[in-house]
Amino acid sequence: MCFRKTIFFGVLAVFSAGASAMDATVKIELEATSYTSIEDESKFEDNVAVGIEPEIKGSFNDGDLIYNFTPFIRLDSRDEERQHADIRELHLLNALDDWELSIGISKVFWGVTESSHLVDIINQTDALEGIDGEDKLGQPMVRVSRSFEETVLTGFLLPGFREREFLGSDNPLALPFPINNDPVYQSDAEELNIDYALRFSGYKGIIDYGLSWFHGTSREPSFMPGFDGRLIPQYGLIDQWGVDIQATIDAWLWKLEVINRNYDDDAFGEDFTAAVGGFEYSFYGMADGLFDLGLLAEYHTDSRNDPSSVNFQNDLFLATRLAFNDAESSELLAGIFVDQDDDSTSLRIEGSRRVFGDAKLSLEAQAFSNIDENNVSYEFRNSDFVELSLELYF
């Protein structure tokens, strides 16, 4: 917390001293969620939530320095645990010739596949925002990049670890056991441990690729039993190597992500190798140019091969994507996950469309079907939901 406060006030002081250009917007998200398969409706009612995300960006010193400040606040009518605030971005960026330096709080995304992002490890998952793992917390970092003709080498210094927060126990999408919010760290420095990462990325002909290495505190906790009956999150030290590759061949996109993760102490986690790979094939200009149709297939494998504790250890993802060629940028993705060991399935739908000019209406829905009692998703078997959100920009 002290590190983030130091960055915050330091950056604001620099802004006030020499800002020459600024652009400010505010995104307000109105969200309504209905849990359509809750057996006991008194346990958790449908709820509404509000998300507020201002963004202030611009430059100073004649454009040599670029800044971005993006805080985030979530208010929820039902789940007090989901009410939280975060600084998604608060950094200074300086680009000079082939070098780029960023200091502050940032979000970094790695990955190419649709159904999961194995290699994406820099930022902690914001588990209060959804179960798909797409939302991330801001991460304090110093990032240095050097560009070459077709490649980029980036180094990361990551001071300050962000713990994963969890939904309230009565939320239908919460973990099926009570959580103790006092985690255990392998590092003596605990959340002040300094992590490191390197990424070498680029393209060669039809191939886009990334090679990454991370050393530090795992963003994904394991759990140990506590004396009070609650489980205690524990964060071990890991080395993770990752590869992500995408090949574009006419209307085909071939994608692959592979990671190998090794724990310094096996009491904090089991070493494993995991991969997800597949393709997307697009039919362009369908129905006289009304929409483009994409067909997706991805397969997941994990050397731990334990369906009771590991997601996507032998799973197939099949989906179709509709991208309408309209002024409202309408999109729809519908996909199904199928566990190849026990036939447990999960159907997911995501859609969006611009409305009222620059506002955006989004749909997210997920249904769980035929979930085996030994599957990690078993506790979600009665947690089908439909979520509508309206994003307004000012």
Q: What does it look like?
A:
The protein has one domain (2-393): Porin (Beta Barrel), CATH 2.40.160.10. The chain contains 2 helices and 21 strands. It has helices at 2-18, 286-289, and strands at 19-35, 47-60, 65-76, 84-96, 99-106, 139-147, 151-159, 184-185, 194-204, 207-217, 222-225, 231-235, 237-249, 252-263, 272-285, 291-302, 314-324, 331-339, 345-355, 359-369, 385-393. Helices cover 5% and strands 55% of the residues. It has an 18-stranded antiparallel β-barrel. A 3-stranded mixed β-sheet has the order 8-12-11, with no helix packed on it. The protein is mainly beta and 394 residues long.
Topology overview:
Blueprint: H1 2-18, E1 19-35, E2 47-60, E3 65-76, E4 84-96, E5 99-106, E6 139-147, E7 151-159, E8 184-185, E9 194-204, E10 207-217, E11 222-225, E12 231-235, E13 237-249, E14 252-263, E15 272-285, H2 286-289, E16 291-302, E17 314-324, E18 331-339, E19 345-355, E20 359-369, E21 385-393
Parallel strand pairs: 8-12
Antiparallel strand pairs: 1-2, 1-21, 2-3, 3-4, 4-5, 5-6, 6-7, 7-9, 9-10, 10-13, 11-12, 13-14, 14-15, 15-16, 16-17, 17-18, 18-19, 19-20, 20-21
